[in-house]
Amino acid sequence: xxxxxxxxxxxxxxxxxxxxxxxxxxxxxxxxxxxxxxxxxxxxxxxxxxxxxxxxxxxxxxxxxxxxxxxxxxxxxxxxxxxxxxxxxxxxxxxxxxxxxxxxxxxxxxxxxxxxxxxxxxxxxxxxxxxxxxxxxxxxxxxxxxxxxxxxxxxxxxxxxxxxxxxxxxxxxxxxxxxxxxxxxxxxxxxxxxxxxxxxxxxxxxxxxxxxxxxxxxxxxxxxxxxxxxxxxxxxxxxxxxxxxxxxxxxxxxxxxxxxxxxxxxxxxxxxxxxxxxxxxxxxxxxxxxxxxxxxxxxxxxxxxxxxxxxxxxxxxxxxxxxxxxxxxxxxxxxxxxxxxxxxxxxxxxxxxxxxxxxxxxxxxxxxxxxxxxxxxxxxxxxxxxxxxxxxxxxxxxxxxxxxxxxxxxxxxxxxxxxxxxxxxxxxxxxxxxxxxxxxxxxxxxxxxxxxxxxxxxxxxxxxxxxxxxxxx
Amino acid sequence: xxxxxxxxxxxxxxxxxxxxxxxxxxxxxxxxxxxxxxxxxxxxxxxxxxxxxxxxxxxxxxxxxxxxxxxxxxxxxxxxxxxxxxxxxxxxxxxxxxxxxxxxxxxxxxxxxxxxxxxxxxxxxxxxxxxxxxxxxxxxxxxxxxxxxxxxxxxxxxxxxxxxxxxxxxxxxxxxxxxxxxxxxxxxxxxxxxxxxxxxxxxxxxxxxxxxxxxxxxxxxxxxxxxxxxxxxxxxxxxxxxxxxxxxxxxxxxxxxxxxxxxxxxxxxxxxxxxxxxxxxxxxxxxxxxxxxxxxxxxxxxxxxxxxxxxxxxxxxxxxxxxxxxxxxxxxxxxxxxxxxxxxxxxxxxxxxxxxxxxxxxxxxxxxxxxxxxxxxxxxxxxxxxxxxxxxxxxxxxxxxxxxxxxxxxxxxxxxxxxxxxxxxxx
Lengths: 473, 427
Prior knowledge:
The complex is a heterodimer of chains A (about 475) and B (about 425). By secondary structure, chain A is an all-alpha fold. Chain A has 17 helices and no strands. Chain B has one domain.
């Protein structure tokens, strides 16, 4: 199968779909993971590990709620620690889904088809993890609604000039639109699952969620309109969320935070880490479930290219930050960017970050690294680590040494910080494992469409074409 | 100032009638206007007025030259039928970096007028002394020489590659162009950023902003798309362009313009929001200079007509598909881009941002038009000559394959495919 996907077509491109697929084979292959296969041992093992991590998360959070955020490493100069680092990291990972679904849809990039469902699910789960951190950081999460502007007798009203308030709206809008986008895209597939489900309970649940989809021309027309409108709505959100996260920092005039390049380079960094996470997850998935005909080497190659571009933008951001720290002549800025970060007590994180985010990604200039899944997988994990370190460097170093040496301090995560962090990875993976078993990981509908398009293109070129066969419901 | 334009090869410039007409017009306006600029540069009382105006005109045309090279390379990387329609104009625009390199020389004689760091005693101020190793006339000239060397090399490489591809149906030249384009684009982005810092940001040497290069580059990208759409719309009835001068392709160009309108607004607004909210004494003067003394009018024009109006208009699919409408629209965008460039450069002359308001420098604004016409006259005639020498559409470009699937009845979405629309007959 790997050989087949490496076969080049007439234009020298690796195809976005393995050869020989029809409407029927596509539907069978993707829906069988949900409907007919029993859980595989690998799935059970992965789910069990994730679930244990999730339990650890719940334990850490319970302890936090009982004892308060004093169990974390945050202290007076460094009031933002792992919680904000993790918030930014998760929300960044959550960007690839919408980018792939909305922007690549509007740009008519057909290679997005087989990864969008999966990336959207990943987005939702990452945003769920991200959203928990600011809430937990509140100290008394049950009073979260104080963040919202609502009439109350406490004379409490949000500070509208604060990006922290923009965040509340940006993240919740993003979560809502992503969820809608995902769900609307799922409806025809849910109908397929409803029609193919063997068990009564499956029929009822999928039937309920499919909202009476019958596949009539009118249904398709409205579905397409809704899907496109949602794509249009989601597009600005890809930029807005991480822009506002960047503003959270830049509006504070702490050295190392107040620089104008932050918004675009945060957005690029978010896409960078999002694609890295898509690769980290999809490479084992496609290999374990034999989906290499759908998530082909072409997809991996394209994602690597997107990561190279965004990695270079991030590097440009670091460079501008460093140059302006010197050029601007502000001694505090210069100390922070050019002295404390490379040589101070957190220097090891800074150097590691440059290694992970700026240096190793340069391997993607070579086709060899873009087309060998094992390399891609390793590099994508390195980038995930690098992007976490980036947020750690930004949050912690800037706070640890501000204008007055008398207010300097040090920060280290405690065991509870680490438990919450790894625990949230458990939450993310648990949701993902469940998703793999209950919903189609690749959009069946859009893959059928791709089969049709590849078929048409084959005709146009006069070359050997795949025969789509008759459509399944 | 000698004319950098080589004499047109027999029969080449006249091959396409509209180009020949436009070229003779550019040649009629350009040299006299440029001569006036040079004369004013030589007279001591007027040199302080003309140099900033000349810089505005220079940066305006420079952005399009650099955009030509960048977008050509971008198209080699991404493909797409939009690029076929404007590829030849883009390549010709990239070559205008050659006359622009010569037209940069006069600026070197006016550094003391333009840049406080180049004045006698300018480096005595501690903040400027700190970066005197970077901001001094020698380093400035050496960096400019390096930038121009690189840009000319890239412009030459992409033009040579496209000539080779025209002669063979083997795709090897296009593949090697794609290989140059990825690092080339990165290098152009980086050098353009530093050119923006050198030539424009250092007009106020105590001010800094790390998004500045990205903000300028997106503005130049928009100007390039506007200029290229203008050329494509003007040439839409040329028989050579018939396969690509179609509503669908114009719609794509307009959508790309929309993307750049939004990017420009995004980078500009982010810089403003961050500096406004920080309200630091070293950053805020840049906006104080640009929002008083009549410059607030420019701010209003930029917000309304450089962002809001184009944003709303470019959301309308019917307009985007009309080449005749895009012709006027692109011209307006170019005018607004000039206003943006004026607003970025001229207020820098106000030394004290809180000084009493003196009003707009009307004479200088008129001289901006003269300088823009002078530099533009030479660049445009060079551009038109280059454009006329080659087929108006690249002959064997990989993007030509996409033409087989290009249907005007199909829009950028699939809404109309369900149910399939009745095929519209085309003439």
